[in-house]
Amino acid sequence: MAAGRARVSRLLRQLERAACRCPSHGHTYSQAPERPTLGNTDYAFEMAISNIRYGEGVTKEIGMDLQNLGARRVCLMTDKNLSKLPPVNAVLNSLAKYGISFQMYDNVRVEPTDQSFLDAIQFAKKGEFDAYVAVGGGSVIDTCKAANLYAASPSSEFLDYVNAPIGKGKPVTVPLKPLIAVPTTSGTGSETTGVAIFDFKELKVKTGIASRAIKPTLGIIDPLHTLSMPERIVANSGFDVLCHALESYTALPYNERSPCPSNPINRPAYQGSNPVSDVWALHALRIVAKYLKRAIRNPEDREARANMHLASAFAGIGFGNAGVHLCHGMSYPISGLVKTYKPKDYNVDHSLVPHGLSVVLTSPAVFSFTAQIHPERHLEAAEILGADIRTARIKDAGLILADTLRKFLFDLNVDDGLAAIGYSKADIPALVKGTLPQERVTKLSPRPQTEEDLSALFEASMKLY
Predict the structure, then answer these.
(1) Under DSSP, is residue 231 helix (H, G, I), strand (E, B) or coil?
(2) Long-range contacts made by residues 435-440, C-beta under 8 angstroms, separation at least 24?
(3) First and final C-alpha spacing in the chain
(4) For residues 161 and 171, what is the distance between their CA atoms, to the nearest angstrom?
(5) Calpha distance 304→312 (Å, rounded)
(6) Between 438 and which of 105, 176, 329, 404 could a Cys-Cys bridge form, CB atoms 3.0 to 4.6 Å apart?
(7) Distance CA 239, CA 233 (A)
(8) Distance (Å, rounded) from C-alpha 145 to C-alpha 132?
(9) What is the per-residue burial (b if ≥16 Cβ within 10 Å, else e) of 215-254?
(10) Are 179 and 71 in contact (CB under 8 A)?
(11) What SS3 state is found at 176?
(12) What DSSP element (H or E) covers 66?
C-alpha cells in the first residue's frame, strides 16, 4: 500500500514538472514577477483599428448593418456639398430600402473648428441617437466621432477630452454608440483611427481628441465614391496618405517613447513606430508611389483610384497606432493661421489650406532634418518613391529623400512652398508658436527639436523648388 502511494506521488510530481506553464492551459500557473521598465520608457504597443469592409458598391449593405445593430434612430452626418452627390445618395437608398429611421446633419464644416464640433454635438445630444453614419472625408468622420463621444458623455466639458496641453486629455471611459464611417476621399484614414482633429479658433491652432474609444465600429471603403473627386482633392488627399506613411515609419520607436503608462488605458493612441505599423506604412507608401500620379491625372483610372482608397486605410492603420510627427505638428498652424488662400476644386466660403497640402509642404525640410536618426529608413522610403540609391551614402539619406519629394511634388504642380499660399518669414514666429502645443505628435519625431530648429524648418519650407 505504501509503495503504491509513493508511486502515485512520484507520478504526480512528474506530471507537475511537465505541465504547460501558460495561463491558458496550465493548472499549476503562478503569476510571474512584474516586468520592470527601464528609464520609464514604454515596453509594449497595441493595435486598434476599426473593422473594414471593402468593395465596389458595398455601401448598399449599410442599411442591413444598421438593421443588424438594432438601430432605431440613426444620425447621418455629411456636408452640404456631399449631400447632393452619389455617395450620400447610395447611403440614403440603402437606409430607405431597409426602413431605417434617421435624421441628417449636413452642416459639417470642411476643416472643422471647435464651434462646428459643438454645433454637431448639440444636434447629437438633442437627437438621442442609437447609431451614427458619417459620409465624407476626414472632416465629416472626425465631426461625427466628436458628436458621438460628447452625446455619450453629456456632462463632460468640451476640453475634458481634448488633447493636452490645450485640453485635459482625459481617458474615455463611457460606452459610445456604433459609428459607421463611409470615406469619400482617399487621405485621412479617419475610418480606421480614434482621432478627431479640429481648429481651436481662440489659439488659432489645430488640435484634437485621440482615443481608441472613438474609432468607428466599421469603415465602409467603397471605391465608387472616389470617382467624383476633383483633381486637387485627389492630390491633397493623397499627400496626406504619403505623409502618414512616411511619418509613422520614421517615428520614434515605441520602446523609446516615455513615459510608460501606469495603466494600459493611459497608453496613447500614437505610440511610436512599431513592427506592425511598419508593415502597413510601407505598403501604403508603395501604393502611393505606383498609383497617386495616375489617380490625379485620370479620373477614369478606376484601378488607381481604388488602390489609393485602400492606401488611405492602410496608412491609417499604420499611423493610427504609430502616430505622425513634425509634418503634421507643423501643419496645424499652417492651416489655423490661413489668410486668404482658397484652393482650386474646393467649394467653400472661407479661406482654407487643405490638410494634405499643409502637411506635405514641409516634408522635404522635415525629412532632411529627421534623417540623422534611422537614416536607413529614410533611404528606404526614398527608394520606394523612385530614387536610385545604388551608390547612395547613408549619411546623405535626408537630402536624397528631400530631393525625391521635391521632384514628386513638382511633377504634380504643388504650390511652391509656404510663400505660395500666403506666408512670409515674418509669420515664422507665429507658426512656431502654433507648433509648440502639438506635443502629442512633435514628441514622436525621431530627432528632438528646439524652437530654433522649428524656425529653420519653416524658413526652409517657404520655397520648395
Answers:
(1) helix
(2) 435/329, 435/330, 435/332, 435/333, 437/165, 437/166, 437/203, 437/205, 437/207, 438/205, 438/206, 438/207, 438/328, 438/329, 438/330, 438/332, 439/164, 439/165, 440/163, 440/164, 440/210, 440/268, 440/270, 440/323
(3) 94
(4) 7
(5) 12
(6) 329
(7) 10
(8) 9
(9) bbbbbbbbbbbbeebebbbbbbbbbbbbbbbbbbbbbbbb
(10) no
(11) coil
(12) helix 62-69
**Distance between CA atoms of residues 137 and 134, nearest Å:** 9
Residue type, 158: F
Q: How far is CA 242 from CA 184, 285, 314, 359, 385, in A?
A: 18, 6, 11, 10, 10
For the ranges 6-10, 185-189, 350-354, 429-433, the lowest mean pLDDT is seen at 6-10
Q: Which residue has the cell 468640451?
A: 158
Q: How far apart are CA 322 and CA 277, in angstroms?
A: 6
Q: How many residues does the chain have?
A: 465
Could you give the CA distance from residue 365 to residue 201 in angstroms, rounded to a whole number? 27
pLDDT of residue 4: 57
- Give pTM, 2 decimals: 0.88
What number of helices (H) and strands (E) belong to the chain?
16, 8
> pLDDT tens digits, residue range 67-115?
999 999 999 999 998 999 999 999 999 999 999 999 999 999 988 999 9
- The single-letter code of the amino acid at 200 is F
User: What SS3 class is residue 222?
Assistant: coil
- Is 70 exceeded by the pLDDT of residue 265? yes
* Cα–Cα distances in angstroms (integers) from residue 180 to residues 91, 145, 220, 296, in the given order: 11, 10, 7, 27
